[in-house]
Specification:
By secondary structure, the chain is an alpha+beta fold. The protein has helices spanning 2-8, 45-55, 65-75, 112-122, 130-149, and strands spanning 12-22, 25-32, 38-43, 79-89, 92-101, 104-110, 126-128.
Length: 158
C-alpha cells in the first residue's frame, strides 16, 4: 500500500516567497500554494544576493554565474522547465533541474540553492516532493518544541 501511495504522490507546487536572514544565516523560503507548509533552505550570502536579483528581475553590472548559465542555455535553445526539491537526507536537501528543448529533455542533479536561482531567472515552476514537505514540517515542529521546552518535558529551553 505504501509503495502505491509513493508512486501516486506528486510534487507540490511552491513559491519562492523570499529570503530570510536568521541569525546571520540566509534561507530561501518556499511556501506551498495552500500556504500551510513551508521549507527553509539554507543558502550562502552570495546565493541570497543572486536569488534576490533573479526574483526581482534585476541585473548586476556584470553577469552573475546564474545569469551566464541561463544565457548559455538560451543561446542553444534550451530552457529550464522546472525545479523539483526531491529529498531531505541528513539535513541536506537534494534537487533536480529539468531542461527542455522542443521534444528533447534532460535532468540534472543540483544543489537546491543553484536550482532556485535558475528557476527565479527562468520563471519556471518550483515543486517540492510531498514527503520532503511532511518531513521538514515534522522536524521543524520538533525543533520548536525542543527550543521551547528543552529535551525533557517541562524544561524550558532558553
Amino acid at each position: 500500500m505504501l509503495l502505491v501511495f509513493m508512486l501516486l504522490a506528486k510534487p507540490v507546487p511552491v513559491s519562492i516567497s523570499g529570503i530570510k536572514n536568521l541569525g546571520g544565516s540566509y534561507n530561501a523560503v518556499l511556501v506551498d500554494t495552500a500556504g500551510d507548509r513551508f521549507v527553509l533552505i539554507g543558502i550562502t550570502e552570495d546565493q541570497a544576493f543572486s536569488l534576490q536579483m533573479g526574483l526581482y528581475g534585476m541585473k548586476y553590472f556584470r553577469p552573475l554565474t546564474h545569469d551566464l548559465f541561463i544565457t548559455a542555455l538560451d543561446s542553444m535553445g534550451w530552457k529550464v522547465s522546472k525545479v523539483v526539491i526531491t529529498s531531505l537526507r541528513d539535513n541536506v536537501f537534494y534537487s533536480n533541474i529539468y531542461f527542455s528543448k522542443g521534444k528533447r529533455s534532460f535532468i540534472l542533479d543540483a544543489r537546491p540553492s543553484d536550482a532556485l536561482c535558475l528557476a527565479a531567472r527562468a520563471g519556471c515552476p518550483v515543486l517540492v516532493e510531498e514527503e520532503v514537505l511532511d518531513k521538514y514540517m515534522e522536524d521543524f515542529k520538533r525543533m520548536l518544541e525542543n527550543m521551547m521546552w528543552g529535551e525533557e518535558e517541562g524544561e524550558i529551553g532558553i
